[in-house]
Design goal:
Layout (H helix, E strand, L loop, with lengths): L2 H23 L4 H75 L4 H17 L26
């Protein structure tokens, strides 16, 4: 062995002795430290494997839940989808028919706003009967007349 190799071996032995002395001062040994580290590593691996299994299980449960939701939506679509399309189409047909009627009657759609406002005003002027008088009539005569109740 040459001098360099012997020096390296001596430095390695000295490092190990210093390390062992430091471990003893800390209340352990290099062998015990290695055992503890190995156990900690094995625990981390075990916990990681358990976590992986939990994530896989949760993923399967979520997929099942999403599949159930998808099946429900598809079932609803099969049952009611055509009905909804028919309702939408019927509304479109009514709008088209109304527009055709306005065109045939030469009515300007802006004139409809006036009619709407008059109807709205009449509705807001209406009131519920105050009470019945002894004769079965409500309150005084108003712009809409008087309500009588036969009994």
């Amino acid at each position: 062995m040459d001098g360099l190799t012997e020096g390296l071996l001596e430095a390695s032995r000295q490092y190990y002795l210093n390390l062992e002395e430091a471990m003893n001062a800390a209340g352990t040994s290099t062998k015990q430290f290695a055992t503890d580290a190995s156990e900690a590593i094995n625990q981390v691996i075990s916990d990681s494997d358990a976590g992986t299994e939990a994530v896989k299980k949760m993923s399967e449960e979520m997929k099942t839940a999403f599949d159930d939701i998808t099946d429900s939506v598809n079932s609803w679509q099969e049952s009611y989808g055509m009905s909804m399309e028919k309702i939408i189409q019927a509304n479109l047909d009514i709008i088209e028919s109304f527009n055709n009627m306005l065109e045939a009657l030469s009515i300007d759609p802006s004139d409809l706003e006036v009619t709407y406002n008059v109807a709205k005003k009449m509705d807001s002027d209406a009131k519920e009967p105050d009470s019945f008088d002894s004769g079965g009539y409500t309150g005084n005569w108003g712009s809409f007349g008087r309500l009588a109740m036969l009994h």
